[in-house]
Design goal:
- With 194 residues, this protein is of the alpha/beta class.
- The protein is 35% helix and 22% strand.
- It is built from six helices and seven strands; from the N terminus they run E-H-E-H-E-H-E-H-E-H-E-E-H.
- The protein has a seven-stranded mixed sheet with strand order 3-2-1-4-5-6-7, with helices on both faces.
- Helix 1 runs parallel beside helix 6.
- The chain is globular, with a radius of gyration of 16 Å.
Length: 194
């Protein structure tokens, strides 16, 4: 892993599987003068992921990783990270679980954003589950990635009020809006402490 000596901006990779709205938001944030990071690599496990369009638009190197074998996929990801001298990883809607072996190699340098107030509602369908349980609040959490799903140390959270007429789609939109504010904030916070 590259060393951080007199580095102006830290090279990061963003791993996606879908639309990449958090990715787009992180890219926009990275262009700010006082931003501590630069996105040098976008990795997707899906060749049709809409988020890959941002790689083209912003001229960022992209790599599509075939996940037929998780072991080989991770080997490919690691060699790409090494090649691009990536120091830090952000998961943004990456729908694959990284092995504990992979996580060890980047210990304390992988973060994820999750659409619930962890430790509640780990995994999928978070919005519907929160509504079904009559929760007053949902929200989003940025956390370190550990070998247990959605269980790493919490960095930042943002609450979102759930109203009586909220559907899971409505709630998802409200939470996503907050994710866009929270993720760059959490990333800057973590990178400040490195």
């Amino acid at each position: 892993m590259p060393k951080l000596i007199g580095v102006k901006k830290i090279d990061i990779a963003v791993l996606i599987s879908g639309n990449g709205t958090n990715l787009k938001n992180l890219i926009n944030h990275s262009f700010k003068k006082n931003s501590k990071f630069k996105i040098n690599l976008i990795i997707s496990n899906k060749s049709k992921a809409k988020g890959l369009n941002y790689a083209k638009k912003f001229k960022i190197h992209k790599k599509i990783i075939d996940y037929l074998s998780a072991k080989n996929a991770e080997k490919d990801i690691l060699s790409e990270l090494k090649r691009k001298q990536i120091y830090f990883i952000c998961l943004a809607g990456f729908m694959k679980i990284l092995s504990s072996n992979f996580i060890k190699k980047f210990k304390g340098k992988i973060i994820n954003i999750h659409p619930s107030l962890l430790p509640k509602y780990k995994g999928l369908n978070t919005h519907q589950r929160a509504i079904s349980n009559n929760e007053k609040y949902s929200g989003c959490t940025v956390h370190y990635v550990s070998s247990k799903l959605d269980s790493g140390k919490i960095i930042l959270q943002k609450k979102v009020r759930i109203f009586k007429n909220d559907t899971s789609e409505k709630l998802a939109k409200k939470v996503l809006k907050q994710e866009h504010i929270l993720y760059p904030k959490a990333l800057e916070k973590v990178l400040s402490s490195l």
